[in-house]
Amino acid sequence: MSRPEIRVSRLHKSFGDNHVLRGIDLEIGQGEVVCVIGPSGSGKSTLLRCVNLLEEPTEGQVFVGGIELTDPDVDIDAARRRIGMVFQQFNLFPHLTVTENLTLPQRRVLRRGKAEAAKVAARNLERVGLAEKADAYPASLSGGQQQRVAIARALAMGPEVMLFDEPTSALDPELVGDVLAVMRMLADEGMTMMVVTHEMTFAREVADRVVFMDGGVIVEDGTPERVIGAPRHERTRHFLSRLLDPAMAQVEEETSDQVGKSG
Amino acid sequence: MADTTEKTPVPRRKGMTRRQKRRLSRGIQYAVFVAAVVAFGVTADWGRLQNQFAQVEIAERMFPEVITLALKNTVLYTVTGFGVGLALGMLIALMRLSSVGPYRWLAGIYIEIFRGLPALLIFIFIGVAVPLAFPGTEIIGGTYGKVALALGLVAAAYMAETIRAGIQAVPKGQMEAARSLGFSPGRAMVSIIIPQAFRIILPPLTNELVLLFKDSSLVLFLGVTLEERELSKYGRDLASQTANSTPILVAGLCYLLITIPLGFVVRRMEAKAQEAVR
User: Fold this and answer.
1) Assuming Cys at both sites, which of A117, A205, A250, B222 could form a disulfide with A103, CB separation 3.0 to 4.6 Å?
2) Helix (H, G, I), strand (E, B) or coil at B69
3) Closest Cα in chain B to A86
4) Where are the alpha helices (DSSP H) in chain B?
């Protein structure tokens, strides 16, 4: 593995009494695509949100591109410009057109000129296949289109790392493919990506590594063939069997090691 | 179908059906209303009423001054008061949402005080108490400045709560998305959150404008020159000069000339906002 682009060490996160992350150590190399899977409440989304400090870790360190984000003196706004984030609910700015969604952050945050911002916006909209929607408002787009605009918006800032928080979970099934195609394209271009997802096919085919989380800890970490194809732990096997064949699952007692409500 | 009704017959109500009762109640209400109108029409002294409220000659004498002076001043007082209120209200709303404790407390205290006091008292305070307490201080703009300040102080308390509610109504994900793109908290607020909040609060803000429009009549208590009179003062002065109530009626109609279209605009905006949510 080349120089780690993302390094998380001894990370803990609590919401009140709820100990969501219980000591996470994770390294993601440059150009690596890592999928984080696990049951809801396992802490995988919280881990992702700690990587760009949308959640303040209770304990431990986060490095991105060699800069420690958990250092209280770091310029977090500057550091975040290197990290693109894509949300489950897209979070496009509804009062702006698609193009303005891409140009406003460039102009306000990166201080790019009007013409340059517009050029970068157009190029990135083309990359995600939505050049013809440039003047539309987000509300008039399908979920899949909105999510691709959200990816383009993040890319327009020229990030070195992209974080995806269940990017296809809010989409109608027939729209998932377009978004995954864009993500696959990014992976092929060598973008460093950390993806929280339930899309096992994507994880198997695109990811370099799959991380399985449960109960706030990393249970397994390895190649997709290893973790998905031949899981070593009972918890991983159990999760995968329920995910891959939900109709066969048995009714079972709620387990107490599920922490938090949201993944 | 026939044998189903046979097996379970619809239970018969005793007395009137619900529809008959509703019709009867409606009928009584209309009858009372018609009776009241008729009683008023018969008993009122129409000649006297016309003499008192609708003397065309007196009304004609009011024009064009009632528009060029009185209505103009009313609008001027309202707009400047609204401007001061909006700026101050925005500041207080942001203080109220601040993570710094003392800012929140100060804003809370301000809102509680100025929301709880009658606007009239604020006008008297600005007009009388402040000059007495701080002799030599001049409020910029004379009467206009005082009115803008007094109306602004009152309006800010209400607007601050409206703006705060609007900011909080913007989904949390908007701030998260902006911060993830590298916006600082302040810049995200200005570029992303506040523009969306204003869309949400445009109807209540317009309502506040209507309220201020009416409250501008309190200028009366500041002691104004002839040139500074607004609709209410103007109407009252003329009413006492002519010993007739026609000027009051005309002044009232001038208020409605502005407030009714504004109310219409608010309802249109609310309907549109409803559509957008759907």
Assistant:
1) A117
2) helix
3) B177
4) 2-7, 18-43, 46-53, 56-62, 65, 72-96, 101-116, 119-124, 130-133, 142-169, 172-180, 185-188, 194-215, 231-242, 246-277
Those of residues 187-216 in A touching chain B at CB distance below 8 A are none
pLDDT at B238: 86
What is the DSSP secondary-structure string of B114-130?
Answer: HHHS-HHHHHHIIIIIH
Considering only CB atoms, which chain B residues are within 8 Å of A91? 171, 173-174, 176-177
Question: Which residues of chain B have a CB within 8 Å of the CB of A78?
Answer: 182
Mean pLDDT check: name the lowest of A27-41, A154-168, A192-206, B254-268: B254-268
Over residues A169-183, mean pLDDT: 93
Q: Does A110 touch chain B (CB under 8 A)?
A: yes
H-run or E-run covering A196: strand A192-196
B195 near A CB under 8 A: yes
Nearest CA in chain B to A152: B181
List of chain A residues whose C-beta atoms are within 8 Å of the C-beta of residue B192: 93
A74 inside 8 A of chain B by CB: no
- The whole-number mean pLDDT for each consecutive block of 10 residues of chain B, a chain of 278 residues, reads 56 79 93 94 84 78 82 90 95 94 95 91 85 75 85 93 95 96 94 92 89 88 82 87 86 90 85 64
Q: Any CB–CB contact under 8 A between A108 and chain B?
A: yes
Question: In chain B, which residue's Cα lies nearest the Cα of A150?
Answer: B177
Distance CA(A21)–CA(A11), nearest Å, equals 7
8 Å CB contact between A222 and A60: no
Residue with tokens 């509703």: B22
State the pLDDT at residue B8. 65
- Lowest-pLDDT choice from A56-70, A224-238, B115-129, B263-277: B263-277
Nearest CA in chain A to B193: A93
**pLDDT exceeding 70 applies to what percent of chain A?**
95
pLDDT of A3 reads 75
